[in-house]
Write a structure and sequence with these properties.
Elements (H helix, E strand, L loop, with lengths): L5 H8 L2 H7 L6 E5 L2 E7 L5 E7 L7 E6 L1 E2 L4 E7 L6 E8 L2 E5 L6 E2 L6 E2 L26 E4 L1 H5 L33 H8 L3 E4 L3 E3 L18 E7 L10 H17 L3 E6 L10 H5 L28 H17 L4 E4 L7 H12 L8 E4 L27 E3 L1 H8 L18 H8 L16 E3 L9 H9 L10 H14 L5 E5 L19 H4 L4 H5 L1 H15 L16 E2 L7 E6 L9 E7 L5 E4 L5 E5 L13 E2 L2 E4 L3 E7 L1
Parallel strand pairs: 11-12, 11-20, 12-15, 15-16, 16-17, 17-18, 18-19, 19-20
Antiparallel strand pairs: 1-2, 2-6, 3-4, 3-7, 5-6, 7-8, 7-10, 9-10, 13-14, 21-22, 22-23, 23-28, 24-27, 25-26, 25-28
Helix pairs in contact: 7-8, 9-10, 11-12, 12-15
The structure holds calcium ion.
Length: 650
Amino acid sequence: MAAKTPAQWKTLFENVPFHRENYYTGPLGPDYTPGGTCLRLWAPTAEAVTVTLYHKGDGGAVLGTEPLVRGAHGVWSVWLPGEQHGRYYTFAVTVDGITRETGDPYARAAGVNGVRSMIVDLARTAPSGWERDVRPNIPPAQRAVWEVSVRDFSQDAASGVRPAWRGKYMAFTQQGTTLHSDGIHPTCLNYLKRLGVKYVQLMPIFDFGSVDEAKPLLRQYNWGYDPTNFNVPEGSYSTDPTRGEVRIRECREMIAALHAAGIGVVMDVVYNHTYRTENPLNSTVPYYFFRQNPDGSFSNGSGCGNEFASERPMARKYMIDSLLYWAQEYHIDGFRFDLMGLYDVDTMNTARAALDALPGGRDILMYGEPWQGGGSQLHRYEANKANLAMLNERIGIFCDDTRDAIKGGCFNAREPGYAEGKPGSFWDVGGAVAAWCRSDRLPPHAPSQIVSYVSAHDNFTLWDKLLCVRYERPEFTASDPVALAQNRLAAGIYLTCMGIPFLQAGEEFARTKKGEDNSYASSALLNQLDWKRTAACQGLVEYYRGLIGLRNAFPRLSAPDPDTPRAVRFLPVEAPLVGWVLPAGPERAAWKALCVFYDPLAETRVVSLPEGRWKLLSDGTSSTLWQGESTVCTGEFSLPSCSAVIFGLL
Ligand code: CA
C-alpha cells in the first residue's frame, strides 16, 4: 500500500465517516491508580503502537517495551500493573510504515525538556494545604489584570527574592519581599497586594521548547510562545526540571500563594500552534491536529509554521480537555487565548460551556486576541472581531481599537494617539469609554467583553511608545515630566473605560525595554522587571493604585449589561477634550455618579461641571484624593494640562 499524501490525509480527516468511526469522548492519557496505570492514546491511523518505559526522564536504562492494543474509536491502550508513579515513557507510533517515537499528547508530567512523558500520582504533587486552595471570589468591579512572565517577575537581584527562586515559580511564594531587602519598598507578591490588581496573567507556563532546560538559564531567555507539552508546566521555571513532579508541585505552590493573597491566575494558552512539527500530536496522528492547505501542507496562520485545527472534533476535544485539566488540577482562574482568531467560534463557545459546568466555572475568565498571525485556512466563523456577536458574552477580546486610540498604533513607533495629542482622536476615545457598544466599529457585544489596555508583552512598553512619539532619539531611562503626564492620562482613560482593564507588568512604573518592541528572545536583563523603578516612579505606581481602587468603588464601570454604555452621557466640551457622566447603577457605589474629563492639551482648560456637588476624586496627578476629605466642586473647574480628572457626585 502506497503511503498517503498530505492531501489524502486532508480528504480523509474532513470526511464525516472518519469521525463517525473514530470520535471518542472518554479519557485519554495516563490513568493512574496505586494498583496500576492505564495508558490510552487516540491514534486511529496507526498500524501499531508500543510504549517504552524508563526509570529516568533522560538517558538511563530501558525498563521494557509493551504493545498497546487497539480498541473502539481509534483508541489504543495498555494496562501497566503495580505502582507506576515516577515512571517515564514514550510511545512508538507506526503510521503508513513510518514509526515515530513520541511523548504522550495527554502527558501530565514530563522529564527534562518534555521529551519523555511521566506517569504521575497528582495527589503526591500537591503542596501542603492544596486541598483547601480555591479560586478567590473576585467581583466584576474588581477585575484588573496584570500581565507578567514568571521569569521577569523576580529575575532582578534587587527583587529581594532568594537567589535560588529568582525567575522561578517559587518566587511568587516568598512573603514580605522588599527592594534590596530594605524593608521599605515592597516587591513581587508583597507589591501586588498593595497595587490592588486582582488577576495576574502569566505568560506561557505550559512546557515550551525554546529554552533548554538541561542547560544553565543564565544566557537563555524566551517568552515561551512555542508549546511542546500543553498539559505539563514549563520545566525551566522549576527548581529541578529533571524530576517531573517538581514543576507540578512548584507551579501549584505559586498559584496557591497568589490565591492566598486574593489574586486570581490567568493562564496564557497557546493551542494555536506547536513549536515543532515533530510534536506529540503530529507524531501520533500525522496531519490531523493541524490545518492544511488544499495541497495538504501545513497552513501557517500563526506565523510559526503551523496552526491548530480546532474545528476537527478530536482537536477541539483536545483543547477543551486541556483547559478543563488546568482549571481542575491547577485551579486556574482564567484563560487568555493567544491568536484566538485561529479558533472557530464553536470551539470557543463549547469551551465556555465546558468551563461553566465546573463548580464556580462561570467565573473563570476567558478572553483572547481577536486576530491571527498570518493567512489561515480557517475560512468560517473565526473567533475574531468580525464575529464578536457570535461569541458567548463571557468571552472577551483584547481591544486594539481602544489601545490604538489612546496611545497610537503599535506598528509605527512615531504614530501618536489621543494621549500624545493626535488631532481628531477624541471621537474614538468616546467610543472606548463606552466599550464600543455605541459604535458601529464592532458587532453587538457586552461591555464586559472588552479588554481595555494600552500595553501588553507585544510591541513597545507604554513608556517607550510615548518617548518614541516625542523624540527622534529617545533617552528611555531619563525622567520626562511630559511623558509622565501622558502616561497618567493614558492610564486615566483606559482605567475609566467600561470593560476589563489590563496592563503589562511595570506599565505602572514606566517600564522600559529601551525601545525594543519585540523582546521575546532578548536578554533576561532587558525583559526583567526592574524593581528599582518602583521606588523611582513611586508617584506613578500610586496613581495606578488609586485608579484601580477608585474603579472598585464604582462598579457600574465593570457592568456586563449591554444597556449600561447607553447610560454614559457625553458632555458638550470643546474638542479635543472629552467629558462624560455615568450615574451609579443598582449596585452600591461610593458616589451617585462619576464625571470624568480628559484633556490632552499642553495648556489648562476650563470646563463646566454638571449640576450638583462634585467631590474631586482624582486631579490628574493624585488619584487617591477620593480616599480622604477632598475638595468639593461646583460650577467651573480648570483642568490641568494633559490630565484625566475625575469627580464623584455627592
Ligand atoms: Ca520546556
